[in-house]
Design brief:
Layout (H helix, E strand, L loop, with lengths): L1 H45 L5 E8 L6 E5 L2 E6 L2 E5 L5 E6 L5 E6 L2 E6 L4 E5 L4 E6 L4 E6 L5 E7 L2 E7 L5 E7 L6 E7 L5 E10 L2 E10 L11 E8 L5 E4 L4 E6 L2 E6 L5 E7 L4 E6 L4 E6 L7 E6 L5 E7 L5 E5 L2 E5 L3 E6 L4 E6 L5 E8 L2 E6 L2 E7 L1
Antiparallel strand pairs: 1-32, 2-3, 3-4, 4-5, 6-7, 7-8, 8-9, 10-11, 11-12, 12-13, 14-15, 15-16, 16-17, 18-19, 19-20, 20-21, 22-23, 23-24, 24-25, 26-27, 27-28, 28-29, 30-31, 31-32
């Protein structure tokens, strides 16, 4: 019995040792895979290009269409309708409508096209047309959430109405504002979950113009609040032309002198303000980054691009020397373009490509994925691959 007991103990010790070796080997493999993934990601982020080849091209059928990036696809829209195009220039869906002044808003794969100063509203995703309705009053501005809901500012005589809709036009909530209380609306944004809404109003008091930003909650956090209003912030003497929800309850308020991050659903609070000393030329944003482009104080460069995280910390800076006319943030890259050249910069601040178009005049440029860019010219749509 004693020999059997010792044999079992030896067997258990052997099994325990083998298990430890297997665990150690598994842990080592996981570490190697993680390190390789990081190395591959960093190498891709830091890669630069010296030229490009045209992989596919298609003649443009009109000169009035506009384009917008949407979750790896491109939305083509005009007064007569809209179409979704994939990276191979294939049409995913197409819808006809009639609008005098079509405007677009995109969030989390949801696409809103509305007729500014008209009343038509159309909703899409990257698969198909999901809803349309008529607002009934002239639309000043509108925005979409990531959950098929729409907020619209409507002209109502000398006043404005703020209306929140389902994708089918059912009214969820509504309120009215005047030029004096709280002011004239200039921007609005819905959160991804569709429960939070921010609206910026231009105000004037005693000859001093400024901005008031109001926050609304259409979920549990807004119950019992008058008009679902959860917070209001006033900025005398400061113009804030744009508000935008980033991720969760984080909202950026862009001003003529910087930006402020406001966070919270039931009781929003200012968590960070960043002042910009130089003249602001452009701003851009996505769910992870805020971009500010200023005139460079260094005379050897045209512009300075600064990328901030959503908590207001600076992530990168880079000089931009192209005399750009358009700027697009597409995932982890920013694309600058004018009529003859374009420049691709990573959000980490790396200049990845700068070059001239070989043929035609550029009207826009958008990244479609990887090292491929859709370039829209006066004659063609081209998918180019950087190399």
């Amino acid at each position: 019995m004693l020999m059997k007991s010792r044999f079992l103990e030896h067997l258990k010790d052997g099994r325990s040792s083998n298990q430890k070796l297997r665990y150690a080997a598994t842990a080592a493999v996981v570490v190697i895979v993680v390190l390789l993934s990081i190395a591959i990601r960093d190498a891709a982020a830091n890669r630069t290009y010296s030229g490009y080849v045209v992989e596919k091209e298609e003649n443009k059928t009109d000169s009035v269409s506009r384009f917008e990036f949407a979750d790896g696809y491109v939305v083509k829209y005009s007064q007569d309708g809209a179409a979704l195009i994939n990276r191979a220039l294939e049409t995913v869906w197409t819808v006809s409508f009639s609008m005098e002044n079509p405007q677009i808003d995109v969030r989390s794969g949801q696409i809103l096209i509305y007729d500014q100063l008209g009343s038509s509203i159309y909703l899409f995703d990257v698969r198909n047309h999901i809803g349309s309705f008529t607002a009934g009053k002239p639309i000043l501005k509108a925005c979409v959430s990531g959950r098929d809901t729409v907020a619209a500012l409507l002209r109502d005589g000398e006043n404005t109405s703020l209306v929140y809709y389902t994708k089918d036009g059912e009214m969820i909530a509504a309120g009215e504002s005047t030029i004096t209380n709280p002011g004239y609306p200039v921007s609005l944004s819905l959160s991804d979950n569709g429960l939070l809404l921010a609206v910026a109003y231009l105000t004037a008091s005693d000859g001093v113009t400024g901005t008031t930003v109001r926050f609304y909650n259409f979920g549990d956090g807004g119950k019992g609040r008058e008009n679902n209003l959860t917070a209001e912030f006033s900025y005398p003497g400061i113009f804030a032309p744009e508000v935008c929800y980033l991720k969760g309850s984080e909202c950026a308020v862009f001003t003529d002198s910087g930006f402020t991050i406001i966070k919270g659903s039931s009781a929003p609070k200012e968590v960070r303000s960043v002042a910009i000393r130089d003249d602001i030329c452009s701003v851009f944003h996505d769910g992870s980054n805020l971009g500010i482009i200023t005139r460079s104080s260094d005379r050897s460069h045209r512009y300075l691009m600064s990328i901030y995280s959503t908590n207001g910390n600076i992530k990168s800076t880079s000089y931009i020397d192209i005399a750009y006319e358009r700027v697009r943030v597409c995932g982890d890259e920013v694309i600058f373009s004018n009529h003859s050249e374009f420049c691709v910069v990573s959000t980490g601040g790396k200049i990845r490509f700068r070059g001239r178009l070989k043929e035609g005049s550029i009207s826009d440029a958008l990244k479609t994925g990887g090292d491929r860019i859709l370039v829209l010219t006066d004659q063609k749509m081209e998918v180019i691959r950087l190399h």
